[in-house]
Amino acid sequence: MKKILLSYIIFLIGFPVWSQIQPVLTLEEAVSLTLENNFDIRIAKNELRIDQENVTIGNAGMLPNINGTVTNNNTILNQTQTQASGNEIEIDGAQNVNINYGVGIEWTIFDGFRMFARHNQLKELQNLGATELKLSVLSRVSAVYQTYFTLSTQQQQLKMIDSIISVSEFRLKTAKNRLTIGKASKLEVLNAEVDLNADLSAKIQLNEQYSISKVTLNELLVRPLDTDFKVSDVISIDSSLLLPDLLSSAEKQNPQLQIQYINKKIQEYELKQVKANRFPTVSLLGGYNLIRSQTPFGFVTESTGRNFVYGFSATLNIFDGFNQNRNEKVAKIQLENTQLQIERQAQIVQSQLATLYQSYLSNLSLLELERKNEGIAKQNLEITLEKFKIGSVAPIEFRTAQENYGNAVIRLSSAELQTKQSEISLRELAGSLSF
């Protein structure tokens, strides 16, 4: 019995009694594995690579098109000819060969500056891909943070439940000893046993939640779902966040808001491309061809030729049924919509930040209160335990003190988790989440 009491007293001063066998996964390792392995991030990276490959002057239409052509036409002819002299000539299986091959070039040198607008638009599409990658990274890393600290909280609660079970086992053993010497009834033993079973049931339920959270984190890290590990119990909370700083950071770094800014630039270049149709399109043309022809009849049976072709072409849309005016009006309306989307997204981000910040402040206050409550409940349990040892406290009062302390520890760990989650969400919205 003295050993059990000693174990419980050690628990009260904070000695870890939970298993240390499992390998510890640090938060830095979890984030690193996510950045390297997560499917959503890898897909976003590949999408960015595609956007980067598309940013070329050739894709914008600034370079010439050069085509090589080869044409070979063969004819087998069966023919009867009657000449002016009355002579008749029959030709059977005559083969006529015509070969034409060469190189042609077409180079658009002016298109109303459409090619330059297109090139700038491709650059903005690359920026859009980079911002979407950042959004994917922030989202996945935030999920890792949330799950990691959820596991940390559940570990703390499992340690507490293990210690509560040790105390309940001590109480049951004490009740049985008291029954043996005639100082307690069978009812006291049964009540102690029921309370111990309730503690064991609570541990089973928390173990289930803990196992599910580990599967979720393994999925985010893209590794075998049954990989066993534990996380750090330390939850460090930043209580110095200020709403004006978060709003300023979000305006510059929030990926969703930045995406809307980039979409506006893309639409501006789209409008420039539409307006380019009012200008003529001028192209340079050139080519070099070789021609060879063979025929078994006629005055000329074989001929060859070489020619060089050069010139230019210019086209101008004079009238297209007022479609140019319509296209420009539509592009301008779409540009107005992108500005409205910017304003809407900015308001959404500001609203989310203001709401989350209020929750953050409330959670900080709640956390401070729960810390005090946990200290009071711990002191109350220590006093009750001493009285229980000398038999001056009824078992039901001891159980109440035990439950109060357990609930206080759970509320404290939950308050820590909620506060940390608020902090993570605020940093994610502000675009300043560390990874």
Automatic annotation (TrEMBL):
Domain of life: Bacteria
Gene3D superfamilies: Outer membrane efflux proteins (OEP)
Location within or outside the cell: Cell outer membrane
Keywords, alphabetical: Cell outer membrane, Membrane, Transmembrane, Transmembrane beta strand, Transport
Predominant localisation class: membrane
Family membership noted in the UniProt record: Belongs to the outer membrane factor (OMF) (TC 1.B.17) family.
Protein name as catalogued: TolC family protein
Taxonomic placement: Bacteria, Pseudomonadati, Bacteroidota, Flavobacteriia, Flavobacteriales
